[in-house]
């Protein structure tokens, strides 16, 4: 009698677990769209640069630089008046246009080279 009760208990447990559905696996994060490396179509952009690691910098007028990071984020930083070399800074980034090199520099010191987009 005990064995029948035990078997019925096990069957009930198996049946209740059979009704449980496993949670679906989360979908992988979508990869950002590749950054456009062609000339800007924005008439306010006076110059554009592409940087190592697939970053893009667009100078907007004389006062701002719009940076599109390789992960798709867009950050706007401000021109630093009377800076030498001419620089834009903000949000942990510095964009400097030197005579021999153009660099995008993070606050932690990591820097990448940039070149003009023709």
Automatic annotation (TrEMBL):
It comes from Luteimonas galliterrae. The keyword Signal applies. This is C-type lysozyme inhibitor domain-containing protein. Keywords: Signal. Residues 1-18 form the signal peptide. PROSITE patterns: PROKAR_LIPOPROTEIN (PS51257).
